[in-house]
Amino acid sequence: MQVGGEAEATRMAHGVVLAASGDRLGAVASSTTARLLAASPDRPGIIAAVTAFVAGHGGNIIDLQQHTDRGESAFFLRVEVDLADLDLPREKIAPAFAPVAERFAMRWRLGFSDHRPRVGLLASREPHCVHDLLHRWRGGELAIEVPVLISNHADHAAAAEWFGVEHHHLPIVDGDKAGQEARVREVLRAHGIELVVLARYMQVLSPELCDEWAGRIINIHHSFLPSFQGARPYHQAHERGVKLIGVTAHYATAALDDGPIIDQDVIRVSHRDDVHDLRRKGRDLETTVLARAVRAHVDDRTLIYGRRTVVFD
Amino acid sequence: MQVGGEAEATRMAHGVVLAASGDRLGAVASSTTARLLAASPDRPGIIAAVTAFVAGHGGNIIDLQQHTDRGESAFFLRVEVDLADLDLPREKIAPAFAPVAERFAMRWRLGFSDHRPRVGLLASREPHCVHDLLHRWRGGELAIEVPVLISNHADHAAAAEWFGVEHHHLPIVDGDKAGQEARVREVLRAHGIELVVLARYMQVLSPELCDEWAGRIINIHHSFLPSFQGARPYHQAHERGVKLIGVTAHYATAALDDGPIIDQDVIRVSHRDDVHDLRRKGRDLETTVLARAVRAHVDDRTLIYGRRTVVFD
Amino acid sequence: MQVGGEAEATRMAHGVVLAASGDRLGAVASSTTARLLAASPDRPGIIAAVTAFVAGHGGNIIDLQQHTDRGESAFFLRVEVDLADLDLPREKIAPAFAPVAERFAMRWRLGFSDHRPRVGLLASREPHCVHDLLHRWRGGELAIEVPVLISNHADHAAAAEWFGVEHHHLPIVDGDKAGQEARVREVLRAHGIELVVLARYMQVLSPELCDEWAGRIINIHHSFLPSFQGARPYHQAHERGVKLIGVTAHYATAALDDGPIIDQDVIRVSHRDDVHDLRRKGRDLETTVLARAVRAHVDDRTLIYGRRTVVFD
Amino acid sequence: MQVGGEAEATRMAHGVVLAASGDRLGAVASSTTARLLAASPDRPGIIAAVTAFVAGHGGNIIDLQQHTDRGESAFFLRVEVDLADLDLPREKIAPAFAPVAERFAMRWRLGFSDHRPRVGLLASREPHCVHDLLHRWRGGELAIEVPVLISNHADHAAAAEWFGVEHHHLPIVDGDKAGQEARVREVLRAHGIELVVLARYMQVLSPELCDEWAGRIINIHHSFLPSFQGARPYHQAHERGVKLIGVTAHYATAALDDGPIIDQDVIRVSHRDDVHDLRRKGRDLETTVLARAVRAHVDDRTLIYGRRTVVFD
Description:
The structure is a homotetramer. By secondary structure, chain A is of the alpha/beta class.
């Protein structure tokens, strides 16, 4: 055990106080950064042009990561710039940068570290991922806002209330999946949701919803994809007798369990573990891998690239 | 995502409903088992004698694990027996078994799978281990009762209330550590606590308390012991430039951070991670490793053996 | 670095001296053990009967592991007995034990720790698994004999000579796979091979060969099965964009890449890794996982059980 | 098993043919790159200046990694540039770059991907790390030359001959460590050695040797440093009852086992593992972690930074 080193307290919704975790969020609060994510055909001079743009406006680059896929001649870049010394107000950065982007035919996006994206959680019965994400948000570990939690079951009402999240119980009535999904979309829209997290949501989304929200829905699948796609992956894993089980966080696409993978992890199992043990061991993986994937997205570290992702460290 | 396979709901304290996780707890509820843990000098015939005792009373062994430390001629055994077919009522098992134990000079103990030990949580400011354990308890994953949560800070009152746990805020006043510890012991006694879990409790316990509760206090230390004992292990790890950080769950002893290790785990870090990142990454390890250690203890899988433990799978 | 603790030397074939690793092999050489592996329908009294048999003959059990699959009411047992005190000569153990086995309808087998099974290696071009196994054998880590190495390419002749192994270059001529396989079987038979190890052998075995050698062929597949069965798994993994790659050691069956899994492991990869990197990272996994699987088999720790295995620790 | 995808053969020293692994080495052989490693105080404009220099000479950056330690205001950079399009011959790059380096007070170095550093191996009795490195070199996985292997024991002569490496048996005679070390230095000098790898060399190097070769000696220590420094770390680990054991590759410094860490890894152990098992399990870690560290150094990915390292991916 340890003396000292305890963390600061922070006030939470509904008068509830959680002791905060004194993590990076607070540590860099005073120093807002802009983050450029860009993909383009590979060509000499891209980094020089981007960094000259930053330097020309007095900016200090605090993190730059670049990746070239030589097989496909594709170039990927993430640049994080301290706004403190930049001679451009934040709303002028994108217009000023646009000509550079155009010159290199970039697909690009600009984010700011003090922007907390509005996340809509979708869940079914399993509570662990929902609670974990809400706890990380309220403890200050994830720089998000979670205005709303939607479930096709009623189980999460009390937790939603405690965490200060609006709860919508949207069951599928008389098999009307399209109707339920329409209500889900409405709620997401009403709350200005920017990122949907499927925190063990057990309904297949329509291709239309997946397309509309392309690159903005993160799902956790409880298998080491592409193994055990579809239903009951822990049963499949037990049946096959694997010696490790895994989970996969990925962007949802119209092709079920086939979207670009953001993160994966595994845990060792043995003949001693029955399906219940696999589910129990898997839950811890599910929460941590989903949280890592959400964090990577929120920190503007992910670029989708065909069926794959670039996830900068 | 997945269709079907959703879990059952279970009712929680204070009218709050958590969707349960359908784990092993429920799965074996109908089949209570007795668990014998024994250590003795190694000698031929021990297993034969124990299993003959079980068979002689009509019992079915559903799990038996044995370990012989040949260097020290020490023998360790865990036997789990289905009570259904045993021709002894549970209170008669120990007296009937005593002669066998005596014959082999065993140190032994008998537990029952339907006994939920009363756990007292001690915490300081960090909330993640407390919440994680309470959530696993309420979700049905850990077969424990948690009647009381003691903290030397006030931060956990709301969480305690929500989870339905009595909360005692016992700060150290005017440096009177002995006085505070006396109050802690009183509360533990009043609640009939059988296992104390230091869920990131940042006060050093007195040797007297450690001795009184020997083998019944589990601590989580946020380093890969024996590296970085004492204060601020994540700072020490960062300073040393290690490429993996770890955590250690161990039984508390009078020698600080030196008790028998129950479980450990690590996570990869790099030069990109500052101390805040180490703390964030470490938190996930702390919760999972502490929960695994508590589970091993509660399932009667741990035997202390000098400075070491035998932890049956 | 470290002072002292250096290992003993041991003399190798062909006058070559490898410094030995001072491992367990030497350490227990003086104490031969018998190992019983048994599977049967679950019933009360099996362990009692087996251990009474051992105790009745004066034997000391130095390791016993048991597993019950409650879903399928199947019982699995591994018992290791020191031969020193047993009042039966080793050739009388099986006949004496047979009635016990019969009583419980056991599928069983008896092995001895001083028996070094004769292993036939099959390889194609990649050398890493072949060299690794030969090195572990010659260094005393694996209790095997390797009289012969068969390859459908000529690349391993020099290595075979150096390690003192007979080498057969058996290419497939004019597409005559059946003819080549017939010659392979002949060589295996001529050398009294007991276990075949496919050390990156890139030819599909015929169902007949798999059946004839059922439970006695170990293959290493360079993917985390059941993902990426078939050809070019690293290419498949790269194409899919997984964040971990894995390997699988399994018993070969007529169904390609579908045999009972003995061991698996994974390593983290990222968008920075191209197919060449995956192959390089995978090679280290392939050698260690294949060696672990061979070791488990040779130590009589594996039981095949439908499509699955029980692998005792 | 797998059809197709087999690798090319490559001819090895002394007429011995190893099937090559078709790894990255060959894949990029046609495209030589220059690699700049630089550390400096953090200041705006460094990346812009460096990349403008490259672009100004027509160069294409194929990999750029940067790290800022904000706590210490230190800046680290690795840039890899394709030489194909650069308008400078390679010997003119450093002089041309020097003014940029000076402007930012850089500590820097320039390497070329087709330069294979001359590595001197030092070993004692254990053969596994020596063989592993020689095998990776001969198989084309490590871009090094290994002209000489020095050992204080005679065990490696045959292996050295087979791999085509000059072998020096330099024992410590009559306790004259200084004399032996003088001979070691002489041999290193005679062979133009650029990097010394202590492949389980069990003698403590003198502070003078460590200083002379600062940043150019890589050692593998068989514990998870800083745990278990000094002698017999596996014995120490067993005694302490840890649940994971580890190894550490680090640059050697005058302070024993305290040099900057390059890489570490761990493996799970249990009460079932005695010291022999720990040594066996540890060996696989030692070979892979040492090889990864050598590879990182050889690929110009490591920067020493006080007691720590920056290791670019």
